[in-house]
Amino acid sequence: MENNVLEIDSPALAGFYMQDFEQLWEKENFENTGNIKTDAVQLVFAGQPATARVLFSPGCGLEIDTEVARRVRAAQRRVRICSLLINSGTLISALVDLLRAGRVAVSGIYDRTQMSDVYRQWQEVPQNRWKIPALQDVIARARLVGKNSTPYSPTGRHDFMHNKILVVDDTVITGSYNFSRSAQFNAENILFIESAPLAEAYSVYIDHLMQKYRGAT
Length: 217
Prior knowledge:
The chain is of the alpha+beta class.
């Protein structure tokens, strides 16, 4: 599976994660956890100043979903997607608006096999059916590359395109948080990292995956 790992040296950032871990350990489940007030912390990457802010769900799940879509709508130059799933209605709407405006380049890769299962789930729920043509429009307009992974089974091969990455201009958005409504209610984390060189490094990585899986059958 494709995944990405970030190693960040920051006592302040580690402190926020510790608060979330302590809530999870104390409650022994994830209900009513993650409602932690966080601030952006100062970092350095590739010799240049950077900042990072972490948010946790379920406590900040709605805030995360709203903030991701807000940043996409505010993009000035590029939106790069590298994600297992794209099933947040808020994000899909933001991408549709951005692509129809035609002022920002949108590109990337997703897991086509896993999204096929999501389409079937949406079809069964009337209020979710609008997402099917909306996301298909996003995929067509942005020419997103779809990885054909192996359908899930407990004993089968797990070769999903398992990243959860958005690059918006010079911001990297990544973590365990899937870009989905269900992620709002799970114990997840997401980082918003402001760093031009890091965003470029992720963009190169996304280009590599797009080239690898473009035209795959």
